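Need Aldo/keto reductase's 3D structure for a figure. Predict it.
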Amino acid sequence: MEKSRRLGGSDLIVSPLGLGSSTWGTTTDYDSARSQLAAYLDTGGNLLDTADVYGAGEAERMIGRMFGAGVPRDSLVLATKSAGVIIDGRPSANASSAYLLSALNASLSRLGTDHVDLWQLHAWDKKVPMEETLEAVDTAIISGKARYVGVCNYSGWQTAAVAVSQAGKNTGPLASAQVEYSLLERGVEREVVPAATNLGFGILPWAPLGRGVLSAKYRDGVPEERTNSRYFKWYVGRHLNDRAARIVEAVVSVATELGVSPVVASLAWLRDRAGVVAPLVGARTTEQLDETLAGADFCMPEEHRRRLDEISAPRRGYPEVSI
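Structure prediction for Aldo/keto reductase:
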């Protein structure tokens, strides 16, 4: 991969593509996950992102098993998340200090390590005062169980609020903001990206391929077995619409002209956006990941970038655009 990048104001140096593990322990078994990590490391990647809710903890257990099987812990910038909880099959949040510290300890046990390089607050919890949440942040950093802390799925004002509250503390500033960001989801450019870049947070986009839609695999329709899937409708369905179809056609056109796949074109567009440090790529199989990694160093010509910018431009207005 191309030259590595610094994550925000931290001393964490990461590769320009991170490896996500959201399917590990569900649709990706241990052998396939281990193969994915090996392929990723072979290309020079070093950022592995997980969470305590991925596979109900199984993704972290797999990573711990890999460390036990010989994957060197110090070869990775290891990131995990706490605060996200699943209640009756629906996502919720618990950012109380007691819960966060208990969740971090459980993650470390599953991962088989005494610290993570990046601990991310997975969701905003409106029920818990921010000061209480940040008590857990301070404790985690002072104890050495987390080197740096970031936020995930925070809005612009939430990102700014937590940064202001954390400013001036001995534990230092937060390092990153992880958000959904792709050609199909550019809403974060209105508030989150400006907040993060002005505060010195590195942006880690999740779902950089529009939840798979930008690969163009649904261009000619959705397989019947998926149309009946409740999860598919919830997770992918939001990006199956006329606007997304127009963007996908533009991506296919640009990719064809440049002799690369739609996956490579979509990631190249995102990787070099302002503030972006490392899109987090994931795959169910090693073959899918190989396609992604094959174009890790591809740079998109400015003309083609402008075409994709224009067709995917998010709606803007007051107050983002002054009157």
